[in-house]
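Technical note accompanying the year-one report. For the benefit of new consortium partners, we illustrate the data format agreed upon in the data management plan: each record pairs a sequence with a structure-token string. No post-processing was applied to the example shown here.
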Amino acid sequence: MKKLIFTLILSLCAIAVSAQPQISYIKVEVTPDHADWLYKCGEKPQFAVSVRTCSNVPVKNAEIYYEVSEDMLPPIAKGNLTLKDGTTTIKGYTMKKPGFLRCRVWATVDGEKYNECATAGFDIDKIVPTTKMPADFKEFWEQSLRINDKIEMLPQITLVPERCTSKVDVYLAKFQNYRIGSYIYGTLCVPKKHNGKCPAILIVPGAGCRYREGYMEEAEKGVVTLEIGIHGIPTTLYDQPSLYKELRYGGLLNYWMLGIDDKNNYYYRRAFIGCARAVDFLAQLDFVDEEKIAVTGWSQGGALTIVTSYLNPKVKYAAAVYPAMCDLTGRIYDQGDAWPRMFRDKTNITPARIETASYYDVVNFVKGLKIPIFFTYGYNDLTVCPTSMQAAYNVTTAPKELLVVPQSRHYTYPEQRKARSQWLLDKLLK
């Protein structure tokens, strides 16, 4: 087991793109007084707060509002302050149980609002998930896979000429899954030059609905990549972006709640076994080495990475980036929870929905992993709470490596993406 805490010092020259921290003229900084952001229960971190311009000039008399809370729970303290010289310290709060304590700050400068946070971890190696393991968890998923095996895969690949390059051929992939006439689609990237069988990476999707460009960089290095969607919609409709948007706000709105009252009909049942079948799709390709298949993904995709690795033994390596759907019942027990945060709405807390959640909770899948897995996430994530991810990491008994970037939210820095990619390539190309 390897664990690396990577504290990044950002400059205003950082690249601001999708899934990246956004850069502005005014910057708010919140920093705990331990470099690794970690404490023992009962210790009281001091959060240094500053409001500055991008040239590091303090903003005098900056008005801030702050909240201190356990991971995404209601605040235990809040207030307004005027920072005479642009700085202050917020202190005096702690945790008596393992978990994360977050200090969030909102600053108002010339009518514009800016925000930042810092999250202190307390004895995080002792965080325990709240979700329960169903007695028939293994049997439920084995039966689901057996039923799916009776449905013909009917695999197809269709060249997408306009996406091909001098080094990579791009295809629309398609295979039948879950019921007759139901398909999983993906964007398949195949190196033009390869000797025999290539290793392969399955990329499973984050939440939402969009086209999939495919993973060209890894394909250029000799790895077959398949980036799938889970909604039964072709992934290469590049000229129809409005279609995906309309589906996100139409038929797929809140899809993560569809069928939640019955574990057999929950939306993710089709998705989970579809991801497992995607591995079989890759394995049956003449140019793929069945002994060198990995899976990776972000957020919902991080969850699907773990699930797929549990359900299909053909997966040899996994890399999960801020995995969602971990410890779904956390909020019920006053503990940080994960996207899709279904139990923040108390009307969803019913015996049937709690039961369904237990069969789809990533914590219960990760306990059964045997293959090497790479994790990376941050403590400031406000979408997938660090409490939930750390709980899942703590119960992982498979060979594991962790790259923590404490200040990252629901995005990755270039160093994280590079580390994930290099970890996979080192495993697959050795």
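Partners are asked to follow this layout when depositing records. Residues 6-18 have pLDDT under 50 and may be disordered.
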